[in-house]
């Protein structure tokens, strides 16, 4: 998907997950060039798990940075 499509996919995925207001979906969509919808879903799942491990009540930007190391 292109950047706009990735942003829309991320918007839908993040609606179901507590997410910090400091996360910029435009930037995240730009950073995930080449990711499929399934890979974006995995990214959000892994970020949610990282948030839990880090003691956060919502996904924070550093949780997403940790999860992008999977690629």
How does the major sheet shape up?
none
User: Topology as H/E string?
Assistant: HHHH
Rg, alpha carbons? 11 Å
Strand segment count: 0
In percent, how much strand structure appears in the residues? under 5%
* Shape by Cα distribution: globular
Number of helices: 4
Mean pLDDT: 90
Which segments are poorly predicted (pLDDT under 50) over 5 or more consecutive residues? none
| Assembly form of the protein | single chain
Secondary-structure-derived class: mainly alpha
Query: What is the terminal-to-terminal distance?
Result: 17 Å
Helical fraction: 55-70%
Topology of this protein?
Layout (H helix, E strand, L loop, with lengths): L2 H13 L9 H7 L5 H17 L7 H7 L4
Brief description of this entry?
With 71 residues, the chain is mostly helical.
